[in-house]
Amino acid sequence: MVVVIKKDSPPTAIKDAMKAIEEDRATRKGFDAKKYAGKIKFPVDGLTYQKQIRDEWE
User: What is the pLDDT of residues 37-51, one digit of tens each?
Assistant: First the structure.
């Protein structure tokens, strides 16, 4: 959300804009990342794979 506040706006306009931002933030639904945590199973340990890939550069 973008709110444009002009230089000569009264303080009440700024407060109203801030209130609108807070209301928008409260009504917006978030993304539930925990729902997908641990769902992908890798055949190799992450640290082992990382070391293997880094050794290819040398």
Answer: 888 888 989 899 999
Report d(CA 15, CA 47) in Å as an integer. Answer: 50
Whole-number Å distance between alpha carbons of 4 and 25: 17
| 13 close to 4: Cβ distance less than 8 angstroms | no
User: Is the pLDDT reported for residue 36 higher than 90?
Assistant: no
Query: Does pTM top 0.70 for this prediction?
Result: no
DSSP state of 30: P
Q: How far apart are CA 20 and CA 1, in angstroms?
A: 10
